[in-house]
Specification:
Mean pLDDT: 84
CATH topology of the largest domain: TIM Barrel
Cofactor: Zn(2+)
Oligomer: single chain
Protein name: Metallo-dependent hydrolase
CATH superfamily of the largest domain: Metal-dependent hydrolases
Number of strands: 18
Largest sheet: 9 strands, parallel
CATH architecture of the largest domain: Alpha-Beta Barrel
InterPro entries: Amidohydro-rel, Metal-dep_hydrolase_composite, Metal_Hydrolase, Metallo-dep_hydrolases
Bound molecules: zinc ion
Pfam family, one: Amidohydro_1
CATH class of the largest domain: Alpha Beta
Keywords: Hydrolase, Metal-binding, Zinc
Amino acid sequence: MPPRFPYFDSPTPPTSDLHLHGTFIDFPTPTSLRIRLDTEVTISPSGTMTSISPPGREFWAHHSIPFPPTNHSRIFLPGFIDTHLHAPQYPQLATKTDLPLMEWLETYTFPLEARFADPEFAEKVWERLVKRLLRNGTTGAVMFASKHVEATKRLAGTCGRFGLRAAIGKVCSDRNVPEGYMETREESLRGTEEFVKWCKETFKSAEGEEEGLVVPVVTPRFIPTCTPELLRGLSAIAKKHSTRIQTHAAESLDEILLVQSLHPIHQRDISLLTRHHLLTPRTILAHCCHLTDPEAKILGQLGTSIASCPTSNLLFAQAVLPVRRFQERFNVNIALGTDIAGGHSISMLSAIRQAGLVSRVHGFRMMSEHDRSVRIPEMHEEEQYDRLAREGEVVDWVRALYMATTGGAVAAGWEKVGVFEVGMRWDAVEVDLGWDEGEAGEKENVVAVEEEEEEENGRVDEVVEKLERWWSGMGGRRV
Ligand SMILES: [Zn+2]
């Protein structure tokens, strides 16, 4: 299967170098953005960036440096990486989120996933899903397919055909799922190994990459639906074939209580996953909203990443991930996911915005604790609130974009994407920051209107401001 290029519309790879001129912005750390104005990036026919020139023309956020006028409205960002989504739940996107997690699975989700026994039905859904992901700027996705090997293969094939970088797993469960969606441990293990081998064989590595565009992921659904024997077997397959692993952990209160009742001795997801050697530097755990600090510390030490899904967590988890505490205290890599269809939207831009909004909830909690018990008498009341707000958990837009790009690449183990560097793959989205739909539908340049009244403070600041407006939903459009 030939390599594909997410940025290009044409299915035919180019035959000569491509030169792109413009503004390139990426997020090398959770607290910084790097801006390259008036820069040319050269991309080889195989999709590798071979030069970024002129070299050294890099500015970092909030550096105010005057620059010659240029078209700063059109910029390139690294493609978004969605690190947690359930492909077969796409048909129920934005509906049926009215039940607690375990009931939701039983009532809506397992019966829907069972329909993917029909490869023709699966194929139709996969094509719609993959095209829509790409249209929304998602160029990489880590996905749960269904339990069916054929449907899972077809999802991989669809991603390859449309050029979506993907890590895909056949979902495994050998208990606590309805009869029509159950499988035995043997079926689960056999199917997983078959898919892993097929995927590695089918998607050979392109020039400049160590592995194919689509890679297999060993995927125990989550602790409540997997016996210890199945977990052990899946762990052995992951080790034997050096694959990634994905599952859910500490998602919601009903899930946590079920795990406790099934495992009275080990009680917790992290303890059980550790016991079965399923936590590795190539493991992604979805949600983790109810992790304890010692559990987060284990993830940091093992290099296991978290896929945070803020919209889904508001709907199902009864908790919000303390992103900054886990990042800063325990060195846990945290990426973002839409959790289709636990989340409402397929758009990573929506997940990015939600990450910022829901992080404020921690600030609310701290305020109320402050009201109850943590008053510091010598500080003026306003100062106390200010201090608590600063020490809170706010995820700003730069950090959220880092999680959706660089953090996602780290989680997925895609070492050649996420930032713009020579030798990395060209995997990007082009965004127009300057335009927005006016109320009557006509285009209006919201940034320009304000700039008539303002002194320009330097071109880099201008780009940063436009990017922040785009993130917050006020301006820009993806092109
Ligand atoms: Zn999930």
